[in-house]
Each structure stands twice: as structure tokens, then as C-alpha cells.
Design goal:
Elements lengths: L22 H17 L18 H19 L6 H8 L11 H21 L8 E4 L4 E4 H31 L1
Antiparallel strand pairs: 1-2
Helix pairs in contact: 1-4, 1-5, 2-4, 2-5
Length: 174
């Protein structure tokens, strides 16, 4: 899904059918997807779960990026997490059914971005300030807060993934 457009996503103009206030969220998610796809092209499978200096593995970040978008999207819709979502959360950082492949984890993230984009397109702007509870404790947020945090959290973990993957690639070539 890597674009050949040299401009960052936010400089390519508005995305069709995405409410104006949610454009930055959509732009950030698409930018993250493009950067992740490019960075992990031909990433070595044997490095997927490596933890240089004890940092989180590339595999963890891939699972977490996918999972957090799913969970925050669920909360934004006003729903509690399902048993499957809770199980996926507890399994982040481990290959649930070996072998785990980089391609499959990247594809899962790409597909989750598509689901989140569909959710953004369907979000009524009049609901953006509606209260939403997060987690079992029902911590206070809003639809907008959850969607913005989804983008922010994605970019934070993408940055960590990019650094970790680069360190692992450099270590392997030296």
C-alpha cells in the first residue's frame, strides 16, 4: 500500500467522505501505513521478536498498532471490548500460532487502518463531543478524543517500530 507520491499524506488534500474534523486522523493513519509498509519491506523474519536493549519487538509493535486501533474504534462506537479483543490484547508481543510472518502482521495492520478509515467516514460529526467510557473503569473520553488518540498512539508506536527495525537491520548487516 506504499504510495509513489513524494508528498506526505496530509499535503495531498482532503480525503473523500471523511468529515473535515477527522481529516487529520485519517491523514495520520494513512501516513503511518505508508511508512510502516516501506520500512518493513523485506524485514528479516528471524528478527520479528528480537528485543535489542530490551525494547519492544517489531512483532509487538505490529500487533499493538493493529489492536489499539481496533480497541479505540470500539470504544469510540460506545461498545465494550469483546472477549476476542481482550484475548488479543493479552497476547500482544507473542506469536499466537507459529510461525508468525512479517507480511501477515503488516497486512493485518493495513486492513485495520482500512476499517478505521471506514469508521471515520461513517462518524457523524455531531457525535464527536459525545462522552465515551474507556476500559472497565469507564475512564472519561469523547468520540473525538478516542479517534485522535488512535492516530497519536499509532504514530508514537510507529516511531518506536521504525527505530527498532533499523537497529535490527543494521546489526544484522554488521
Amino acid at each position: 500500500m506504499t504510495s509513489t507520491n513524494p508528498r506526505e499524506v496530509w499535503l495531498r488534500g482532503p480525503l473523500p467522505n471523511v468529515p473535515p474534523l477527522l481529516q487529520p486522523v485519517a491523514h495520520a493513519l494513512l501516513q503511518a501505513r505508508e511508512e510502516l509498509d516501506a520500512a518493513l519491506l523485506d524485514f528479516p523474519e528471524d528478527q520479528l521478536w528480537a528485543r535489542p536493549a530490551g525494547v519492544a519487538s517489531v512483532g509487538f509493535h505490529l500487533q499493538h498498532l493493529t489492536g489499539v486501533l481496533d480497541r479505540l474504534g470500539t470504544y469510540a462506537q460506545g461498545h465494550a471490548l469483546s472477549d476476542n479483543q481482550l484475548q488479543a490484547l493479552s497476547g500482544e508481543g507473542h506469536c499466537p500460532e507459529p510461525p508468525c510472518h512479517v507480511f501477515d502482521l503488516v497486512q493485518a495492520f493495513d486492513e485495520q487502518v482500512e476499517r478505521m478509515l471506514a469508521q471515520l467516514r461513517q462518524t457523524d460529526p455531531d457525535t464527536l463531543l459525545e462522552a465515551r467510557g474507556v476500559g472497565r473503569a469507564q475512564l472519561p473520553s469523547t468520540v473525538l478524543g478516542l479517534l485522535v488518540h488512535a492516530a497519536e498512539h499509532t504514530t508514537r508506536h510507529l516511531g518506536q517500530l521504525l527505530v527498532t527495525s533499523r537497529i535490527l537491520r543494521e546489526a544484522k548487516t554488521n
